[in-house]
Structure formats: structure tokens, C-alpha cells
Amino acid sequence: MPTSDTAQTDWGAVDFSALRDTRWALLACDVFAEELEDFLKIHPHPPVHRETFDVGLHMVPDDMRQNLQARIFHIEETYRPDVILLLFGLCGNAAVGLHAHCAKLVIPRTHECIAMFLGSTEQYLQLKKEKPCLYFCSPGWNKSELLPGQALYDKERKKYEQRYPDDPDMVDELMEAFLEQYKSYNGYLYADFGSQRTVGHMESSRQKAKEMNWTFETMRGNPAYFAAALSGQWDEKRFLTLSPNEKIAPCWSGNILKKEGKE
Amino acid sequence: MDEKLTALETAIKAGKRKDALALTQELVQSSPPGGILNALISGMNDVGKRFKANEIFVPEVLVAARAMKGCLEVLEPKLAAAGLSPEHTIVMGTVEGDLHDIGKNLVVMLLKGANFNVIDLGVNVPPEKFYEAVKEHHANVLALSALLTTTMPAMKSTIEKMRGSDLKDIKVMVGGAPVTQAYADEIGADGYSMDAASAVELAKELVG
After folding, report:
1. At what angle do helices B153-163 and B127-137 cross, to 10 degrees?
2. Which CATH number is correct for B2-81, 1.20.1560.10, 1.10.540.10, 1.10.1240.10, 3.30.1360.200?
3. Which of A129, A184, A185, A251 to mutate to test the interface with B (most CBs of B within 10 A)?
4. Disulfide-capable partner of B127 in A38, A256, B50, B158 (CB 3.0 to 4.6 Å)?
5. Which range of residues forms the domain containing residue A109?
6. Which residue in chain B has the smallest CA separation from A174?
7. Which of B57, B124, B158, B187 to mutate to test the interface with A (most CBs of A within 10 A)?
8. Per residue in B97-141, pLDDT tens?
9. What tens digit of pLDDT does each residue of A81-104 get?
């Protein structure tokens, strides 16, 4: 079991000194909302500004990119940070092209947020290789209302019933097709950092697994990558750092992200 | 008759399987199969465009695809009888490590609709399996699909496998939500299509 009623996340020994004299801002996916709440409580050099965006933006990467670009420009103009930490990943190419005019940008070199829960991109890729049929889940994902289960099914069904009020056969067929989207999966893999704040999410996710007739596996996440991101331990291997006007580009030869125009 | 063809196209757009099937069964009695096929393709292309514009979502696309599939099953014998049997073979699959097939299935169906002989290898297909299928079926084109940025590199390894073999000249086309023209160029693909409808056009160009 990854959590208990009294547990707090063990962040390990975190060195915050890199951010002592830095005006930094945070733009994060709200899939990390719970973990951020815990971590920023112990942060001696919190961001001058932080904001999160709806995880639902992931459904349309082009829209997500536009939304994030506008937020980056707004953050740098309004709060004048030296650096903006982008706490998300390549996310279906949604991060491609993002840039700032005045601030540096830092982003984890990862495909998706899942690596931040598992401790490294290597762990994430290994997991995908070993258990490709498991659908990843975390406290933030559980809260998102995007995970397959009865609630999402009912919401979709209601949408189609409103669209086809006189055609129940069409509604049934659309719902059959809705479930077909998940046919490649047979279980949830739930990971968290062991905070008492998230206990309810694990149980709620377990219930969703039952509703889908899926297995439910839990694992204790590794907060090292997440803590490194938020404490300014931005080594080149795990993070891409961009100067003003440099743009994020995908890198398919191994390191996931690079500066646009660079090898 | 044109009204019936228009009605068929509308039924496909709306995913009305029973209506589409009934119209197809009626139309094949008296209408040239090529015209019926065009109505089906036109309806499905519209579905693809609305999906790309986020006006409809995966369930609507799947329902329309099922409607078209049923109609194609009725139409195929008529196409064959009219001498419209496939001239070209395409081997297609989702690359190794990737289990997603909705987009791939849509392209497979549209390619069949465009009178290609499609060998669908399914999902999570390793490079060796692609190679064997291309060889066995004397395919003209290899089509690779991926939905995840994590599995896109498997497209590269599949193309490397082909280019390093006796089938090095096979035309390879790639596609899938995160795939771009730049990536296609980087890995040496012969073509990239950004949606299902343009995949058909690309396949025609590659065999042309």
C-alpha cells in the first residue's frame, strides 16, 4: 500500500540552495496539484508566482500549446521572473515551440508526467515496456475526471443522450465505441508519493478499476525527479534549459527534448 | 439515384449504420459500384476532417467507421465483378510497444475503400514482422502508425530494418497523432500523412 492515514511524503535530502537568489516562477500541470501543495510547504525559496493548468488540455495538444504559450508570456511580463519552471513534459508534442522572450525556461526531459512520479524517464520507459496494458493513475489523474470508470461513462452517455434524444440505438452504439477506446488496457497502475493527503484518491481509483473490470496495482512513487525540478537541481541530463527566445523541440535520438535548431 | 448516393454519404457522416447498409444494398442493385464507393469515401473523409477539427471525438469516428465497414462488405464483391480488384498491396500496423489502433484502423478502412489490398498486422508489431509481411505479400507500400512519442522511435528502427534488407526500396509512409513531417524526414520515410484522408492520397502517390 503506498499510503497510510498518517503518512507524509519522504522527500529525501533536498538541496534548495540553487534557488536561494533566483526569482523563479512555476507553470505546472494540475495533475501535480496535491504533490505541489505538500512540497511548497517545505520550500525555503518559493516561486514568485505559480499557476497550474487543467490536465484536460492534454486532450488537444495544439490547444494546450497555445494556452501554455500565452501563459508563459503573461507570467514573464507580469512577474518578471529570471526563470520559469515548466512542470510537464513533451505531452504529445504540446511543448514543442514553447519559448519566452525575457525569462529562461526549464522543462524536464520527459515524455509525460508519469516519469515525475516514478523518479526518472528510464523508469517510465521500463514500466511501459514491462506493463504496456496498465493505465497509469495518480492522485491528480484521479481528480481529473478523465479516467475511465462509471463516472466518465455516465458523463459521456448523458452527452450523447442529449445529442440524440430520439435515437437510443445510436447512443448505445456510441457508448460501445467509447469503451472500445480502452480495449488495449486491462488494469490501473496507481502511484503516489505516500502523503496522507492523497489516500482518498487511491481508493477512488481502486473503485474505477472495479467499474472497468480491470486489475488494480499500486506502487510507491519516487519523488526524486519531482523534488529536483522544484529545488533547482536542473542538470542537463534530466532538464532542458532554454535562454530567452530559444524554442523547445522534440529530440528523437534519446534525450526527448532539445533546443530548436540544435542537434 | 443521386439522391440515394447523397443519402448514403449523409448516413456515413452521421454514423447511421442501418440506414447506410440499407442504402448500399439498394444502390448495388442498379448503381455503378465506383459511385457508391465515392459516396462512402466522401462521407468518411468528412468524419475525419471534423475529428481533426475537434468537432467530434473518437466514439463518433468509430461508429461512422463501423457503418462504412458494413457497406464495404456489401460493395466489395460488386467492385471485384466490375474489374475493380486491388492492384496494389499495403502492409500496415502499429509499431512495436504501441497498442493503439483506432487511427490505424481508420486508415486501413479508407485504404480498402480506395481499392488497396491491405494486410493489417495489428498493434505492437516488431520490425521483423513488418519485414516478413512485406516480403510474403510482395507489398508496394509499408504504412506505420504510432500514437505515442515514446513509441515513435520504433518507426525509425522499422525503417532501418527495411533499408538494411533486400527490401530496401519499399516505400514507407508514417503517421499518427504525434508524428510530424520533420520526423518522417529525419527517419527516412518516403511520406507522412497528417490524417486518415491524406494517408489515402499519399498511398496513391507512392504507388503512382
Report:
1. 50
2. 1.10.1240.10
3. A184
4. B158
5. 17-117+223-259
6. B59
7. B57
8. 999 998 899 899 889 888 899 999 999 999 999 999 999 999 999
9. 999 999 999 999 999 999 999 999
